[in-house]
Amino acid sequence: xxxRILVVNPNSNERVTGEIAAAVTCLRIAGGPIIDCATLAEGxxxxxxxxxxxxxxxxxxxxxxxxxxxxxxxxxxxxxxPGLYSLREALxxxxxxxxxSGFSLAxxxxxxxxxxxxxxxxxxxxxxxxxxxxxxxxxAGDRAIExxxxxxxxxxxxxxxxxARYRKALQDRLGIPVVDPVQAAVGLAQLTLQLEAQA
Amino acid sequence: xxxRILVVNPNSNERVTGEIAAAVTCLRIAGGPIIDCATLAEGxxxxxxxxxxxxxxxxxxxxxxxxxxxxxxxxxxxxxxPGLYSLREALxxxxxxxxxSGFSLAxxxxxxxxxxxxxxxxxxxxxxxxxxxxxxxxxAGDRAIExxxxxxxxxxxxxxxxxARYRKALQDRLGIPVVDPVQAAVGLAQLTLQLEAQA
Amino acid sequence: xxxRILVVNPNSNERVTGEIAAAVTCLRIAGGPIIDCATLAEGxxxxxxxxxxxxxxxxxxxxxxxxxxxxxxxxxxxxxxPGLYSLREALxxxxxxxxxSGFSLAxxxxxxxxxxxxxxxxxxxxxxxxxxxxxxxxxAGDRAIExxxxxxxxxxxxxxxxxARYRKALQDRLGIPVVDPVQAAVGLAQLTLQLEAQA
Amino acid sequence: xxxRILVVNPNSNERVTGEIAAAVTCLRIAGGPIIDCATLAEGxxxxxxxxxxxxxxxxxxxxxxxxxxxxxxxxxxxxxxPGLYSLREALxxxxxxxxxSGFSLAxxxxxxxxxxxxxxxxxxxxxxxxxxxxxxxxxAGDRAIExxxxxxxxxxxxxxxxxARYRKALQDRLGIPVVDPVQAAVGLAQLTLQLEAQA
Amino acid sequence: xxxRILVVNPNSNERVTGEIAAAVTCLRIAGGPIIDCATLAEGxxxxxxxxxxxxxxxxxxxxxxxxxxxxxxxxxxxxxxPGLYSLREALxxxxxxxxxSGFSLAxxxxxxxxxxxxxxxxxxxxxxxxxxxxxxxxxAGDRAIExxxxxxxxxxxxxxxxxARYRKALQDRLGIPVVDPVQAAVGLAQLTLQLEAQA
Amino acid sequence: xxxRILVVNPNSNERVTGEIAAAVTCLRIAGGPIIDCATLAEGxxxxxxxxxxxxxxxxxxxxxxxxxxxxxxxxxxxxxxPGLYSLREALxxxxxxxxxSGFSLAxxxxxxxxxxxxxxxxxxxxxxxxxxxxxxxxxAGDRAIExxxxxxxxxxxxxxxxxARYRKALQDRLGIPVVDPVQAAVGLAQLTLQLEAQA
Lengths: 199, 199, 199, 199, 199, 199
Known about the structure:
With 199 residues, chain A is α/β, with parallel strands linked by helices. Helix content of chain A is 43%, strand content 15%. The longest helix of chain A is centred in the last third of the chain and has 17 residues, at 181-197. Chains in contact: A-B, A-C, A-D, A-F, B-C, B-D, B-E, C-E, C-F, D-E, D-F, E-F. Chains A and D meet through helix 5 and helix 9 of A and helix 5 and helix 9 of D.
């Protein structure tokens, strides 16, 4: 049976979902898992606060359970990894958060990693999360561009889980590897499915 | 105007709330803040999983916002500190989680602290939280008694946020200080209010 | 029997003791423990060096033992926590250092804490202490105002253990919680006594 | 042009290389990069000591440079990641070590990871490496099965970089995710190539 | 002018001082610094508690200042390094504590170091100290032999700062390097003097 | 029999070896171990990259084994400590790396240590090494002077393992202790031999 990775954008901004879908196109493999990208209708227009983060967990969990039947792996496409541990607990399939996945992939690319954040007020939240993952010694810094997700949507720039289109340009400009967290998570999901499918 | 500390038991077990109220009786001060203990009607009978933790944040936040008018400080009486950062962000008052408060008070009592947990499966969750707080080096260990909150309620023992009645006995038996996290949080809330009330 | 918290200023500057007493006035509770503030006559005018810190331990310990009979809890009101572990070992009552207590209370107020120091040369001493407490990951920084305790006494500013009168103004100005370590320690002492008095 | 991942077994045991090739079969994608597995002729029969580790770097580097023309990514298939930083410095392509890759993938699977080692004497070497990666807080333990690589080859078990065939059985038996480091590294190499190939 | 290293045993047990002197005999160099070993008359018979540690700082400092004129380096021969930072601050010469020196030398001998303690109650004190030095990740363990210094004196074994005579036997028995902290400190003092004497 | 410390400069620059020999002159003791300084003929003119580091391990090991008969202790005189663990494993004598030794000695001189590096690109390598040693909390910083070893040789300044002649001047200028890592390593080697020679 065909496998399917379900990538959920926990904000309700369809444009962000579109960017996410575009970002993972390059990962689609003939004969490989289907990669579906969905929008969490109940999500806020952008996830910019801790309250936003916490409030999407319930609808996200409901969506995941509703979809669990035809789904082989689940990706939470928001850099705060909302509900990651709940979904892992509740679902009988691998679940990936884009922040955790992005950090994991970045660990193989250089001595330390930095974070490009949307808003400054997210930085303490990121720092707590990085600390909880035991990765504090690898974090070089965290810089915010200070544009809200809505502003990003009006500009031609679509935010935290939809920045993949800037990855290459940034990487060339900076001369260091740049990881897009959505691509990291979907890639790790795909890898995990390939390995589990093995006889 | 009289100040008020609202202590919310995020599970729906009224007996646990009763134990919480009993635990903080000794902290009531004539002329000091009122200490009210409430039950989160929407909560599960016991908070035993990550899903339980995440699912109570929304009703907890709604309750806190509903009650915010006559409230001076808020205490989340569950050892997983559900919603702590969301409530801090959303409310214009000090918010205390019983785990964080218990750890903080314990830091002044000895070189390292241990945790008595209800269920073994909570231990990784605790460990992540202690790590996110940067307190890993002070954690001596975490032992579970392996009784669910419901079982605890049927026995004469009322669980995580309602174990204060065993504090003294344990302390005498072990010969080391034992901290009840609910008492720690309410005490720190009270202290904070006293200091903020200062001209 | 009435309980009593003895707060000792380990420098011999009575004006600092006066500031300490003023700082804890707001914590006095009708029917609660008496809070007495004493000056260590043998102390130097200000505790500004490691030698000062180490030299006050002996007279502090003697004072504490002399006073132990009518005392329920002891507070060492100097930000270097001189003699904290000795007094804990020698006295059969809870002992609080204002630095440790200040850090503990600060942990419940935000993601990281900073220190306002009197003199730059104290910073390595603080850093060692914070490291020994395992709290290095929570320390955001340490800034010195570079005024000796004596200079502070001649100005209208009375130093490390007597800065409480500036707390509120600083907090309003900075827009983040400011903790006065003397108030933190006396508050934690009071909380501990309330809890231990419980039947 | 077709991309190619070159996986080099730094020991000279062809049977181990055969196991490596078998391990990554499931990762081959129609139209995806070729995955070639090579044996380092100059390597020792098994890499069991620090001297073995250090001595293979030079021939490994020579092989990598010789092969660099038609190669898109390089995988060092020995759990000590010999020469990882040298190859990254010398080659103009992504280089993966199986230990680093295995740790990175494992970080997305659970709270902590453990290591199954061949020989006890490798454990301090692993611990130093995990520390240098800043991952010490995530390491649960390291257990050795105490069979040399040669012994492993004579049994039907082919060692550190060739244990993939036991992954599934171990995972089912233990009830926790088991990561094969060769598969992790080749998977991350493939993912990286897919992403870099993106227009 | 001849240089002189003054090694002070901060307990008043002359037998321990004799052992210390014997321990450093092998370090004496013709034409090198004189190594004098002194007993702190005001010290307790053994330094077994935090109070003992703190109480010897003042007489130790007085002794050091009295002797500073003809002294080039100072060694504090007690494993709690009493007064180390005070003496460093007050004296214009290098000061060595035997614990800090022992740890430093041990770092060059293996992946982690262990501590053989006299009494179990010293272990939390050691752990705090190791943490304050930032060396926690290198500490393998701390085992107490549970004999007080006086008991050790009556047996043929002379305690924390006088165990050098057992070093070799232990090392041979255990098959791992064993460091005597007094020898480490005096050796490092001597090395430092040699280097500072350099034109 | 006379003991001998063999100090090997792993780059092939004889001038650096000359500087090393000059640096350790002050450590020679009448009747003490002979200190011989040798140049690794197979080494590159300067060790400036990870490849240089890894490539010298094999000839260094061969040299060490060839010389092991008349040698009592071995010092690797390059700040990247190439081959340290291999030589420790392969030789039946104490082996010292100058970086590890320099850090160890520096730990006894102040609260934190800094590193003066030759080239900026070495800093991540240093940071990984310091992390692997568990000393990250003691590292204050790492500054590069940005001159290659060859450039240093043409100037009157002879590089990483040959900077001892600047130690004193730097120390006086900065007002803090400055450690030359070659001197630290040879001093620790000498101390270790003295102690092992003890009956």
